[in-house]
Design goal:
With 150 residues, the protein is an alpha+beta fold. It is built from three helices and five strands. Helices cover 59% and strands 21% of the residues. A five-stranded mixed β-sheet has the order 4-3-2-1-5. The protein starts with a strand and ends with a helix.
Length: 150
Protein backbone atom coordinates (compact mmCIF):
# COMPACT_ATOMS: atom_id res chain seq x y z
CA UNK A 1 0.00 0.00 0.00
CA UNK A 2 1.30 3.47 -0.88
CA UNK A 3 1.05 6.16 1.76
CA UNK A 4 1.83 9.87 1.79
CA UNK A 5 3.52 10.65 5.09
CA UNK A 6 6.17 12.74 6.83
CA UNK A 7 9.84 11.72 6.89
CA UNK A 8 11.77 13.42 9.68
CA UNK A 9 15.00 15.26 9.09
CA UNK A 10 16.85 18.11 10.76
CA UNK A 11 18.89 18.21 13.92
CA UNK A 12 18.03 17.21 17.45
CA UNK A 13 15.17 19.39 18.80
CA UNK A 14 15.00 21.15 15.41
CA UNK A 15 12.66 19.02 13.32
CA UNK A 16 12.20 19.32 9.59
CA UNK A 17 9.85 17.04 7.71
CA UNK A 18 9.70 16.00 4.07
CA UNK A 19 6.28 15.04 2.75
CA UNK A 20 6.98 11.83 0.84
CA UNK A 21 5.12 9.15 -1.07
CA UNK A 22 6.36 5.78 0.17
CA UNK A 23 5.45 2.15 0.51
CA UNK A 24 3.88 1.66 3.94
CA UNK A 25 6.25 -1.25 4.66
CA UNK A 26 9.31 1.00 4.47
CA UNK A 27 10.72 2.75 7.51
CA UNK A 28 9.62 6.29 8.34
CA UNK A 29 12.86 7.88 7.19
CA UNK A 30 13.74 5.14 4.74
CA UNK A 31 13.25 4.67 1.03
CA UNK A 32 10.49 6.68 -0.63
CA UNK A 33 9.02 6.98 -4.11
CA UNK A 34 8.68 10.76 -4.45
CA UNK A 35 9.11 13.89 -2.36
CA UNK A 36 6.02 16.08 -2.76
CA UNK A 37 6.75 18.84 -0.24
CA UNK A 38 8.12 19.81 3.14
CA UNK A 39 6.96 21.01 6.55
CA UNK A 40 9.09 23.07 8.94
CA UNK A 41 7.23 23.45 12.26
CA UNK A 42 9.93 25.69 13.72
CA UNK A 43 10.03 28.15 10.81
CA UNK A 44 10.33 31.81 11.71
CA UNK A 45 7.64 34.29 10.71
CA UNK A 46 9.34 35.27 7.42
CA UNK A 47 10.47 31.75 6.44
CA UNK A 48 8.29 29.36 4.49
CA UNK A 49 7.01 26.68 6.84
CA UNK A 50 4.96 24.51 4.49
CA UNK A 51 5.10 23.71 0.81
CA UNK A 52 3.09 20.92 -0.81
CA UNK A 53 2.71 20.13 -4.51
CA UNK A 54 -1.05 19.58 -4.49
CA UNK A 55 -1.08 18.39 -8.10
CA UNK A 56 1.25 15.49 -7.24
CA UNK A 57 -0.66 14.69 -4.05
CA UNK A 58 -3.96 14.44 -5.96
CA UNK A 59 -2.21 12.36 -8.65
CA UNK A 60 -1.05 9.87 -6.02
CA UNK A 61 -4.43 9.87 -4.28
CA UNK A 62 -6.13 9.08 -7.62
CA UNK A 63 -3.73 6.14 -7.96
CA UNK A 64 -4.73 4.78 -4.52
CA UNK A 65 -2.30 6.42 -2.11
CA UNK A 66 -3.57 7.13 1.40
CA UNK A 67 -2.74 10.27 3.38
CA UNK A 68 -1.51 9.96 6.95
CA UNK A 69 -3.55 11.91 9.51
CA UNK A 70 -0.88 14.59 9.88
CA UNK A 71 -0.38 15.00 6.14
CA UNK A 72 -4.16 15.24 5.65
CA UNK A 73 -4.24 18.06 8.21
CA UNK A 74 -1.32 19.81 6.51
CA UNK A 75 -2.86 19.46 3.03
CA UNK A 76 -6.12 20.95 4.33
CA UNK A 77 -4.17 23.77 5.98
CA UNK A 78 -2.13 24.39 2.79
CA UNK A 79 -5.28 24.52 0.66
CA UNK A 80 -6.51 27.52 2.69
CA UNK A 81 -3.55 29.59 1.49
CA UNK A 82 -0.77 31.63 3.07
CA UNK A 83 -3.18 34.19 4.52
CA UNK A 84 -4.69 31.47 6.72
CA UNK A 85 -1.22 30.49 7.91
CA UNK A 86 -0.45 34.07 8.89
CA UNK A 87 -3.83 34.38 10.62
CA UNK A 88 -3.25 31.11 12.50
CA UNK A 89 0.17 32.26 13.73
CA UNK A 90 -1.34 35.58 14.83
CA UNK A 91 -4.13 33.74 16.63
CA UNK A 92 -1.61 31.50 18.42
CA UNK A 93 0.43 34.56 19.44
CA UNK A 94 -2.72 36.23 20.77
CA UNK A 95 -3.54 33.12 22.81
CA UNK A 96 -0.05 33.12 24.31
CA UNK A 97 -0.30 36.82 25.19
CA UNK A 98 -3.74 36.32 26.76
CA UNK A 99 -2.44 33.43 28.83
CA UNK A 100 0.54 35.51 30.01
CA UNK A 101 -1.79 38.38 30.94
CA UNK A 102 -4.07 36.01 32.86
CA UNK A 103 -1.12 34.57 34.80
CA UNK A 104 0.15 38.09 35.58
CA UNK A 105 -3.31 39.12 36.81
CA UNK A 106 -3.53 36.04 39.04
CA UNK A 107 -0.09 36.79 40.50
CA UNK A 108 -1.09 40.41 41.13
CA UNK A 109 -4.28 39.24 42.85
CA UNK A 110 -2.26 36.90 45.07
CA UNK A 111 0.14 39.69 46.02
CA UNK A 112 -2.75 42.08 46.71
CA UNK A 113 -4.54 39.46 48.83
CA UNK A 114 -1.37 38.83 50.84
CA UNK A 115 -0.87 42.58 51.34
CA UNK A 116 -4.51 43.02 52.39
CA UNK A 117 -4.22 40.14 54.86
CA UNK A 118 -1.03 41.61 56.32
CA UNK A 119 -2.67 45.05 56.58
CA UNK A 120 -5.76 43.57 58.26
CA UNK A 121 -3.56 41.68 60.71
CA UNK A 122 -1.57 44.84 61.49
CA UNK A 123 -4.81 46.82 61.97
CA UNK A 124 -6.19 44.15 64.29
CA UNK A 125 -2.96 44.08 66.31
CA UNK A 126 -2.94 47.90 66.57
CA UNK A 127 -6.58 47.91 67.67
CA UNK A 128 -5.84 45.26 70.29
CA UNK A 129 -2.86 47.26 71.57
CA UNK A 130 -4.96 50.44 71.69
CA UNK A 131 -7.68 48.59 73.59
CA UNK A 132 -5.11 47.20 76.00
CA UNK A 133 -3.62 50.66 76.48
CA UNK A 134 -7.10 52.11 77.09
CA UNK A 135 -7.86 49.38 79.66
CA UNK A 136 -4.49 49.99 81.33
CA UNK A 137 -5.20 53.71 81.46
CA UNK A 138 -8.65 53.06 82.91
CA UNK A 139 -7.18 50.68 85.48
CA UNK A 140 -4.50 53.23 86.38
CA UNK A 141 -7.16 55.92 86.72
CA UNK A 142 -9.18 53.68 89.06
CA UNK A 143 -6.15 52.97 91.21
CA UNK A 144 -5.31 56.68 91.41
CA UNK A 145 -8.89 57.76 92.13
CA UNK A 146 -9.24 55.81 95.39
CA UNK A 147 -5.80 57.00 96.47
CA UNK A 148 -6.91 60.60 95.89
CA UNK A 149 -10.07 60.03 97.97
CA UNK A 150 -8.15 58.71 100.93
Amino acid sequence: MVIIRLARGGAKKTPFYNVVVADSRNRRDGRFIERVGFYNPSASANAEGLRIDLARVTHWQNNGAQLSETVARLVKFHAKGPEAAIAAKAKDAAKVEAKKAKIAAEEAAKVKAAADAAQAEADAKAAAEAEAAKEAAAAAAETEAPAADA
